[in-house]
Design brief:
single chain, about 725 residues, alpha/beta, GIY-YIG endonuclease, Arc Repressor Mutant, subunit A, Rossmann fold, 5 domains, about 30% helix, binds adenosine-5'-diphosphate, binds zinc ion, isomerase, nucleotide-binding, DNA replication, metal-binding
């Protein structure tokens, strides 16, 4: 190739053409550096015919400067990038940018100096030197690290270098990862488990696209079972990606993975340090990384040789990204498996209706694990009608649940109270004038966090100190908390059970891997009696001594009328119930509700999943909602209210009239202001057969807006705020 077209990461410019200088070889997918005006930019070489752009004559082209030392993006990955951009109405460059998400890695290897013993005795021996020589047998590390290892000063080691007893070695700054071994510790699978595992292993060997829905009750051993095809891929030298919905779940997973395979997997998530990302990215691109576990952003990495994807807790909505490219990692993962021809396993005890429907229609193969492993039984579930048996005044835990908590503490068993609300109270008022503390950037109340002494907005992250006096009427010490958050429930537990050891488990308290690890160790070790937590603790964790689960407010998720409110409530409560009785002792679950007659609550109490899904399926079919119809949203925002409104009206005014496509709005969004931007929404509901993306593109592409206006398209939205 002597001229190439590049995708570049500049929102104002389309693809650009360049000349390939003599002696340089590039191919499609190569990552290169090219000049743009006085600057240098990074670009990806793309097939010219798949990337419409202005053709520039050869004589005007500038030369590519350099090909970066990373493997070219494979054709399958390029097709996935195109598919994602096309399906989600996103820019190609925005999707492509998720692939080259480690700037450091693109620069290739950097070396550093480590030291090791040469076997040469120093001419002059001192006690310190003797200690060092003894401690550093078979070690190789930096001076600093060796000094720590041997508990001597850097100076002692420098002396040994001068004496020729230690020698320098240049090594890649990114150290190799320890190797996972397929046969390190093999489990005895039950017959049910074995059957499913064998099927997965066959699929890995077949190297064909095969989507599975692993539908297994909580505690049935889904993880144990999908470890087998992972082992098969490791034996076959193919890479595996395990997607988890939250970083907090990674910690529990890592321990189990290491027990099974003798080494930790490679971790990928957006909160990592740049150096960790570089190391992981390079190992992924070279094929050295055997198994990668990560949040959704791990999906777009340039795996050299992927042979299996597992999406665990596949029903979780956090697989949907709600800013930037609004993609659903679960769905794109299936496409990746299809383009690259390997199996994918979507694992869940409460699959999304969409996934069940795909199984129903024969697209996914459904495999079931109908019972808990090792004879553990599913917990008994009962509702507590808060209207008839309310808690004491000013409290949130009903007497029946209080009794159960006391009983567990007496027996030395664990309890878990679930409330999906961080902080102390969701709303704070002035007792004198009724002033409500609201976020200055969002249409949202500020949430009191009593432990960190902050009022916080859960939408934009804004925080302020609780004021000494009401900003409106000036009354001192005026704040009253309305409603409960987990911190308030924890306070209540402390009053009821003064001797109990209580842990709050939320994204505020478990915000680093170390804290999660600590929490897991304490809970497993029996150092916690009562866990009070948000949805963070509803899944993934396995605490054998946990025998009681209390759902503080099952009605919470049903408010607000979200399309998936009932399904989400079902999933959350069923998942958190699934934490009870996983060991040898049976579990018990209490669901506090004001509406025990609601179909979803009744189905939970009866343990009748099929009834719930059947009713929900019919409701969705009737409403033309997914999976039977399709939704898309258009979100218009600006810092200027009038500008946002006018842009929304301009879009509304040019709405196309297309058969089978219904367009609602524009209307102010329920979250009318977010992060200082005013927001309007349109909602599109279409038959499955409608080419909704084409309709939207044709509609919006012709419109022009002021610079401050953002127009975002959300295909298959999960958030309606
Ligand atoms: P799930 O993901 O379906 O909720 P897990 O994979 O967490 O279930 O399994 C529940 C518990 O049972 C875990 O502690 C797991 O180690 C154990 N377990 C499951 N299957 C086996 C097996 N075949 N041998 C030993 N332990 C098992
Ligand atoms: Zn805010």
């Amino acid at each position: 190739m002597n001229r190439v077209r590049l995708i570049i990461f500049n929102a104002a410019l389309g693809p650009l053409d360049y000349k390939v200088p003599d002696g340089m070889t590039v191919e499609h997918g190569s990552v290169v550096v090219a000049p743009l005006g006085p600057r240098q930019i990074i670009g990806i070489v793309w097939e010219e015919d798949r990337l419409p752009g202005e053709s520039v004559s050869d004589s005007k082209l500038r030369n590519i400067i350099e090909v970066l030392p990373v493997p070219p993006l494979r054709a399958e990955l390029r097709r996935l990038i195109e598919w994602t951009a096309d399906y989600y109405c996103a820019r190609l460059m925005s999707v492509a940018r998720m692939v080259v998400s480690s700037g450091g890695a693109l620069r290739g290897p950097t070396t550093m100096t480590e030291y090791r013993l040469t076997g040469v005795e120093p001419e002059r021996m001192t006690p310190q030197r003797a200690v060092a020589l003894d401690a550093l047998q078979n070690e190789q590390a930096t001076i600093r690290e060796l000094a720590d290892l041997a508990s001597v000063s850097d100076g002692v080691l420098r002396g040994l270098v001068n004496q020729g007893a230690l020698e320098p070695v240049e090594v890649d700054i990114d150290r190799p990862y320890p190797r996972a071994r397929a046969d390190h510790e093999q489990p005895d699978l039950s017959d049910d488990q074995r059957k499913v595992a064998d099927q997965f292993v066959e699929a890995v060997k077949a190297r064909e696209f095969a989507p599975f829905l692993l539908d297994g009750v909580t505690g049935s051993g889904k993880t144990e079972v999908y470890f087998e095809p992972i082992a098969a891929a490791i034996r076959d030298n193919r890479q595996v990606l395990v997607l988890l919905p939250e970083i907090a779940l990674t910690e529990a997973f890592l321990g189990r993975f290491e027990d099974r395979f003798g080494a930790a997997p490679v971790v990928w998530h957006s909160g990592q340090k740049a150096t960790e990302r570089r190391r992981a990215w390079r190992a992924i691109a070279s094929g050295e990384a055997q198994v990668v576990v990560g949040a959704r952003s791990a999906l777009f990495l340039p795996y050299a040789n992927l042979g299996l994807i597992v999406v665990d807790e596949a029903h979780e909505i956090s697989f949907k990204q709600d800013d930037g490219v609004r993609y659903n990692a679960r769905d794109v993962a299936v496409m990746r498996a299809r383009f690259e021809k390997f199996p994918i396993i979507l694992a869940s005890a409460t699959p999304a209706l969409e996934s069940l429907q795909m199984a129903e229609s024969g697209v996914y193969q459904r495999v079931e694990l109908p019972s808990r492993f090792g004879g553990a039984t599913l917990p008994d579930i009962a509702t507590i009608n808060l209207t008839e048996n309310p808690p004491e005044r000013g409290r949130w835990i009903a007497p029946e649940l209080v009794e159960a908590l006391e009983d567990r503490l007496a027996k030395g068993e664990q309890s878990l109270l679930f409330l999906n609300r961080r902080g102390y109270a969701p709303l704070t008022l002035c007792r004198n004038c009724g002033y409500r503390f609201q976020c200055s950037n969002c249409s949202a109340w500020l949430v009191e966090h009593r432990f960190s002494r902050r009022l916080a907005c859960h939408h934009c992250g804004h925080e302020e100190e609780p004021p000494a006096a009401c900003p409106d009427c000036g009354e001192k010490d005026c704040m009253v908390a309305c409603g409960p958050g987990v911190e308030r429930i924890a306070d209540e537990v402390a009053e009821i059970l003064p001797d109990a050891r209580i842990a709050i488990a939320t994204s505020d308290t478990l915000n680093t891997r170390e804290k999660v690890a600590d929490f897991v160790a304490q809970a497993e070790g029996g150092a916690i009696d009562v866990i009070v937590g948000t949805q963070l603790v509803t899944k993934g964790f396995h605490f054998p001594e946990l025998t009681l689960v209390g759902v503080i407010d099952a009605d919470l998720g049903l408010e607000g009328g979200d399309l998936r409110a009932a399904e989400r409530t079902y999933q959350q409560v069923a998942q958190v119930a699934g934490r009870a009785g996983r060991g040898s002792k049976p579990g018990e679950v209490f669901i506090q509700t004001r509406h025990p007659e609601e179909p979803v609550i009744a189905a939970l109490e009866a343990g009748d999943r099929d009834a719930f899904y059947a009713a929900e399926t019919e409701a969705r079919r009737g409403a033309g909602a997914p999976p039977f119809g399709r939704w898309a949203a258009i979100i218009i925002s600006s810092e200027d209210e009038a500008e946002a409104r006018e842009a929304a009206n301009a879009i509304g005014g040019t709405r196309p009239n297309v058969k089978d496509v219904m367009i609602l709005g524009p209307a102010p969004a329920p979250m009318a202001m977010l992060r200082g931007r005013y927001r309007y929404r349109l909602l599109i509901n279409a038959r499955r057969s409608a080419q909704i993306q084409d309709v939207i593109r044709g509609w919006l592409d012709g419109l022009d807006f002021p610079r401050g206006v953002r127009v975002n398209v959300d295909i298959d939205p999960y958030s309606f705020v």
